[in-house]
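so im writing up the methods section and need the Glyoxylate reductase/hydroxypyruvate reductase record in one place, dumping it here so i stop losing it
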Amino acid sequence: MRPVLLMKVFVTRRIPPEGRAALAQAADCEVEQWDSDEPIPVKELARGVAGAHGLLCLLSDRVDKRILDAAGANLKVISTLSVGVDHLALDEIKKRGIRVGYTPDVLTDATAELAVSLLLTTCRRLPEAIEEVKNGGWTSWKPLWLCGYGLTQSTVGIVGLGRIGQAIARRLKPFGVQRFLYTGRQPRPEEAAEFQAEFVSTPELAAQSDFIVVACSLTPATKGLCNKDFFQKMKETAVFVNISRGDVVNQDDLYQALASGQIAAAGLDVTTPEPLPTNHPLLTLKNCVILPHIGSATHRTRNTMSMLAANNLLAGLRGEPMPSELML
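--- predicted struct ---
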């Protein structure tokens, strides 16, 4: 019998067990993995992907022309363990006829839960309060001490009313939010109807909202969207939350807005760069809560993501429909 030619698959990180098991059980694939929880160096990525038929990567892996050239003509499928694809050189990938799989929908609920948690943590000043308990600052009950801002009768503005934006609004509605605003490329009347959300311009959203949650994709149009002009339009009592991508925000402008009291507070689950250097000015501010990009970090969600990423990869390699393919 003629020996079966195995398809080479390169995985850029240790992934959750369900996805790892699915790849291990694929008899038609030879899987090589960068065996670390830390990001793969570019040189190692270029070496590992050489001659590969399939690549399973993460959002921290920049798959650009250099990596695609290193892979060579065998590469048929790229599967990313993320819903975002701004780390992929899509024009170059499309030119080469490579299929792309991604993981939408499965992380929507976990990310929306985190967004609401971050919003409440920031607006009610929980990290400050916890620190006061630990350092002896808690002396007695004081009427004005550690007062924050509540959601009841508030106006919430959502930048990007996609799947995650809608899931955030759905969770915030029972808190007694009076009014929802949203902005994006175009009105989405069917999606907005559930929350009676009003489509407004970005400057209007900044000016009218008590709380702003950024949940849009990173595109050339949204890069740096939240900048000095945006923050200047916001209320002094407003709270800003970003769970999308760090590059949507001009962090220097955000620092100035927070340090000067132009806005009340900010909560970030994403930054530029990631990880944020420990000496970054934003980390010196009491009114800025920063998390290490944990929006989808539940055991169930990460396992589901890894399984979907593996199934996308295997289906693509076998010329079958992917469960979640990004149509280029």
